[in-house]
Amino acid sequence: MLKNNPMVKKLVQTGEERVGKLASTLLSNESFVGAVQSLVSKSLAAKGSLDKSLRSALAAMNLPSSADVEALRAKVEDLDQLLTSVEKKVDALLAARQTP
After folding, report:
1. Is residue 42 part of a domain?
2. What one-character-per-residue DSSP string does 66-80 give?
3. Rounded to an integer, what distance in angstroms lies between the CA atom of residue 43 and that of residue 33?
4. What is the SS3 string spanning the chain?
5. How many domains does the chain have?
6. Is residue 38 domain-resident?
7. Res. 96: pLDDT tops 70
8. Which has the least CB within 10 A, 44, 63, 88, 100?
């Protein structure tokens, strides 16, 4: 019901125009863009530091990290494939032995 109201449409249109102008002004300001880039860079550095600290804490508690779990999962899959291959070979040998 409000979406069809011409006054609401005009307010939304005016708001969108002003936000667009504000964004354009901010993005053309070199110091603002530099501050945003610096913020993103520092955030990524903090995330890297947090990840490293978390891995160290998990290792100190003798708990596996997600990378450790993934490596273990890959090894289990490899072992499963190997066992399946061996099982097929054993079955083939038993079948060959049973045929006269």
Report:
1. no
2. HHHHHHHHHHHHHHH
3. 15
4. CHHHCHHHHHHHHHHHHHHHHHHHHHHHCHHHHHHHHHHHHHHHHHHHHHHHHHHHHHHHCCCCCHHHHHHHHHHHHHHHHHHHHHHHHHHHHHHHHHCC
5. 1
6. no
7. yes
8. 100
Q: What number of helices (H) and strands (E) belong to the chain?
A: 3, 0
Question: Cβ distance 72 to 65 under 8 Å?
Answer: no
Integer Cα distance of 47 and 41 in angstroms: 10
Q: What is the pTM of this model?
A: 0.47
Predicted pLDDT of residue 53 = 93
Mean pLDDT score across all residues of the chain: 90
Q: How many residues does the chain have?
A: 100
